[in-house]
From TrEMBL:
The keyword Metal-binding is assigned to this record: yes
InterPro entries registered for this protein in UniProt: Glyas_Bleomycin-R_OHBP_Dase (IPR029068), Glyas_Fos-R_dOase_dom (IPR004360), MMCE/EMCE_epimerase (IPR051785), VOC_core (IPR037523)
Record key words, sorted: Metal-binding
Protein's GO biological process: L-methylmalonyl-CoA metabolic process
Name of the protein in its database record: Glyoxalase
Highest taxon, organism lineage: Bacteria
Coiled coil: none
Keyword ATP-binding: no
Naturally occurring in which organism (per UniProt): Chitinophaga flava
């Protein structure tokens, strides 16, 4: 008999609010090499209430990665506002994609016209880490400024294969 997961040991999805659903679908499909699995609209009083809003109407699309889903959300109601976060601001978040070869991933990003925030780095002892040397990272943003990262993990940054 399977034990139900009543804890918080798995993530299901990350939701990203976007200004233009079609443009964001094109970006995330190019980024991941995957196609969206679902596109729909949701809203109404019950949805607004559970979200703590007066009203809501959202156009959305779902993209299924191996271990996490990405929900792209374009709000029609209430009218969206733009949030601007720097990486060091409290409550700022980013989504990180794990890759096997960061150089190949960077080449792919550049070919797709995606500009990196800076060239990739490989963690060394001089970066203040006690472990994880050899881990490589690079950062970039989606069309709406959502902070994204790619990581080629080593040492404690590696997770057990969950397949």
């Amino acid at each position: 008999m399977a034990v139900k997961n009543e804890g918080f040991s798995r993530a299901n999805h990350v939701g990203i609010v976007v200004t233009n659903l079609d443009k964001s679908i094109a970006f995330y499909e190019a980024l991941t090499g995957l196609k969206i699995s679902n596109r729909d609209m949701i809203g109404g009083d019950r949805m607004a209430h559970v979200m703590g809003l007066d009203k809501t109407l959202i156009r959305y699309a779902n993209l299924h990665l191996e271990n996490l889903n990405i929900d792209l959300l374009e709000y029609e109601q209430p009218a969206p506002t733009v949030a601007k976060y720097d990486n060091n601001q409290i409550s700022a978040m980013h989504l990180c994609f794990e890759v096997d070869d960061i150089q190949k991933a960077v080449e792919r990003l550049k070919k797709a016209g995606i500009k990196l925030s800076g060239e990739p780095i490989v963690f060394q002892e001089t970066d203040g880490l006690k472990n994880g040397y050899g881990t490589a990272v690079a950062y970039f943003d989606d069309p709406d400024g959502t902070h994204l990262e790619i990581i080629e993990p080593k040492g404690p940054f590696q997770r057990e294969n969950t397949k």
